[in-house]
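As a warm-up, study this chain.
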Amino acid sequence: MREVAIVAFGQSDHVRDSAETSEVEMLMPVLHEVLDRTGLAARDIGFTCSGSSDYLAGRAFSFTMALDGVGAWPPISESHVETDGAWALYEAWVKLLTGEAETALVYAYGKSSPGDVREVLTRQLDPYYVAPLWPDSVALAALQAQALIDAGLTDERALAGIAARSRAAAESNPHAQLRGAVPPGEHLVAPLRTGDCPPIGDGAAAVVLAAGDTARRLTERPAWIRGLDHRIEAHALGVRDLTDSPSTRLAAERAGAFQSPLDTAELHAPFTSQEVVLRRALKLDAPDSTVRINPSGGPLAANPIMAAGLIRLGEAAARIHRGESDRALAHATSGPCLQQNLVAVLEGE
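Now compare it with the structure written out below.
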């Protein structure tokens, strides 16, 4: 199979409210950053793919406006996915595997500040049986957290420990929205406290992919994508075991995550309870495990919707670029209670 690598990663400084900037103004510096790191110009990119959501923007085909950040010239081969940018990376990866392009620019962005995110995300639910009940994203995550507690798999103290570890790790991340000690806070929806939930914020991210010798030319240490797979759970929450994630486990198996030891895992777990589920599904919960989980702080430190999953891939790749990791796992999710899951395995040379 053709070799494909992430050769550059960039992201914005994630903030609670970016009302003073448009999506294009937020995105352009990030796009320039990743192109500058590789020395590529817009004309050198063989394929461009983006991830975003019109629901967040509040207008149809909003992604076409964001293309102003890429530029009107030269004409490009372009695609878009109405979900997290991690799935845009998947589409670009397939494009490079088939030999239709040598390089690809993938970007994602989201501005959650203008609206009520908890209400917007109800649009992901079954419109006949679940959405009319109006359970929001935090309420559904709390349902999952309570199922874990009832099964004896965690407790509120352990969840608070996950939040504290993540935000302590974010102190070394200049792009994070929350850093350092964050109090557990009051119950938002029991058993989840405010500290168990991700910050609402705005942000963007981008990566450059390249194939084979092109990747080696563009960076000293490419982050090779050794495996990439995504799976989905049943849409109906009532037929799922919320304490487990078979789709994550299957995606990891197909991506080759269990074939040899990992040293880093960037998990897209917006809620502390979801990290518990993912660690079990990915076999990262052993007491003697040496895998560093979310050394960037993860989505508990910055969670720009539609970009947070792509950021997990980018953060894992960046650690390989810096020589801080040799074999990393990156995970992205979309939908309520970890409904859709993507797993990638990245390696250095």
